[in-house]
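seq as requested:
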Amino acid sequence: MSSRRRFTWRKAAVFASGLLLVSLADPRPASFAAGCCLVAAAWALRIWAFGHLEKNVVLVTSGPYAHTRNPAYLGSFLALVGVCLAAGNPETTRGRLVWAAAALLLLVFLGAYLPRKFQREYPRLRALFGPEFERHAANVPDFFPRLTRWPEASPRRFSWQRVGENHEWPWGLVLTLVLAALWFAPRWSPLARLWNGDGG
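struct tokens:
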């Protein structure tokens, strides 16, 4: 079994953190709706990114890649923020604690997950694309985007076919299921019921 497919402790920690977040979720209509809107925007960004991407074939600098070198990761981060926003609320102790725990997850994403990904991917891209990679890296930020489009970006067009080839469509279903689980969590989660003093 390849190292990518092994169920590592990191994957176990991510799964456990997600399950705990869903189990303790205490959504309210306003914050939940705001979170859903952010998740939808994040998925749209990922679709835009994967509609331009041909991994390891060309160095993509068009579309969102003219603003950030990692638009798919930015989309994932924004989706995580949206899920976290939807899971809690400012009105109850549990809702605020959910947001506090979610903030830790976001810090782990920014402080540990992303640097590890960049450390793995950048040497491979540098070896594949050489000066082209260096020029893109010198002008386009790693993660948080520049507001203006990089003038030297490729004119490459968006392709719905590439979205499918990059296997992005199931991600929308996953996000929808996660949001549904968050909304209904107070009704089915034993942890939520225990918190409420229901116990049963």
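DSSP finds eight helices and no strands in the chain.
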